[in-house]
Amino acid sequence: MEKEILNMEEAANLFGVSMKTFIKLLKEENVPARKIGREWRFSKRALIDWLSRGNSKDYSSSEQDTRQYFEQVAGKWEEISSQYYDSSIINKIIDSGFLKDNMTVLDYGAGDGFIARGIAPYARKIIAIDTSGSMLDELERKAKSQGIANILTFECDINEVPLRSASVDLVCASMILHHIEEPRELIAEFHRVLKPEGILFIADFLPYEDEAFKNNMHDFHMGLDPVALEKWLIDIGFYSITIESMSSRPDKNIFVLTANKVYAE
Ligand SMILES: C[S@@+](CC[C@H](N)C(=O)[O-])C[C@H]1O[C@@H](n2cnc3c(N)ncnc32)[C@H](O)[C@@H]1O
To answer: In the chain, at which residue ranges do the beta strands (DSSP E only) sit?
Structure first.
């Protein structure tokens, strides 16, 4: 006979999401459940019924869609992303010479840890933040198999940077800003969490014209205009901005940008 009463792991599996995402759902929504003793139990029928009574309009925000997208593609992300960018982005950070072995680095929108894992040997600690628990599960799995032990992962709410002010030496935002409705607000958060001598590193798509790609990849912006970005950075208080374009494919180019929190000669 099929099981009707599920434990938390089975309930998360029923919805096809990670435990982290499921626990978040329990906190944010009225999911039918009862605590029996010290354990939560779920009725399979009630969960399916609750799911079917949902209304897609609740999830129409593009950033929620983005989160769902990355939850689904986490296991395939390495294969997908390799069509658009490669380790030359990581090499830009390493070759820049600004990594030091006593540094704390924030990798925001870390995904499966493409950047975090790439630079982990050169820093003391990497704080990897992402809205997708499944992407962070991938990061943890890959880091473990590579013997990397200095990456801490945090699942965050959209555009939240849950860190103290002036607490990190380097912020990396690789291929994330084009997913953000208001990149300027997030960049201001990066400025806040950077130590005075801190550095910001951004990698992203240059403006592209491909509506189908934008929709498939759940991009909010069709790339970013580095000139507009530079102006935002100056307004926010960054100095010594460098921008370099790197070709990836004929139709989608990538730029890398560095900026300092304080003015340096
Ligand atoms: C294109 S992937 C880039 C991953 C990685 N940084 C890289 O360079 O390969 C974008 C990542 O940002 C995450 N993300 C999207 N919107 C976010 C937000 N508002 N806050 C934090 N992470 C977000 C996604 O879950 C996904 O893992």
So the answer is: 5-6, 34-36, 39-43, 104-108, 125-130, 151-155, 168-174, 194-205, 239-247, 253-260
